[in-house]
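Report of the visiting student (M.T.), summer placement. My assignment was to run the structure pipeline on a short list of targets and document each run. The first record concerns SIMPL domain-containing protein.
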Amino acid sequence: MLPVITRTAFIVVACIISAAAFAENVTKPAINVVGKGIVAVVPDAFSVTFIVEEKGPKVAELNKKIQLKVRNLTTFLLESGIAENQIQSMQIQLNPWYESAPEGRKEAGFVLMREVRVTHNNIDNYDAIIDGALSSGVDRVQQFEFIASKQDNAYQQALINAVKDAKSRATLLAKELDVELGSVIAVHENGSSYTMPMMRASAMREDFASAMPGQQMIEASLNVSFAISTQD
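After the run finished, the structure tokens were exported:
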């Protein structure tokens, strides 16, 4: 029985030490601030999502028609100077197709839909790309947006600005509270957010010619805890 008692006592002591360490960490005086950094970039590319769609009773036949539309679209895009790696064939959706009948809705077959996403770094010819895609067999435009091709670099700078902002806020609070600002206890990165000009298909139809690429705001945010101590 003695080894069991010794092992139990060891576990109890370990729990007490862990709890004490946790309590000390929680109650340690600190200033918690949220630092934010924003970088404005001008979009130098655009992204557009095209939709091809077919309806019918047999999925195999629908798939053949969809593949033909995608091939025609891809051929047009390549001939327009868009690189192959800038053309992405996205998700495929297959759903039941219903028609109205005197006795109610009646299942008539299937609707097969496929998305093709295109990015290109020549903003000036986006209108010609969209017009040509629609002429090649695209059924509709899902989404259009101007984008910045170097978002990662901009986010890193926004993150640096967020760190500086956190230091500035903590320093101001420490001064007003008459305490001494210590080292960093913890840092938590909240991630990034991107605000960019975006147009849905309806907006593009209304006034495509007047669309101009605006600035894109890239924001970084983080939580920082600084140790503090009273000034002697």
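The longest helix spans residues 151-177. The domain at 45-147 is CATH 3.30.70.2970 (Alpha-Beta Plaits). I thank the supervising group for their guidance throughout the placement.
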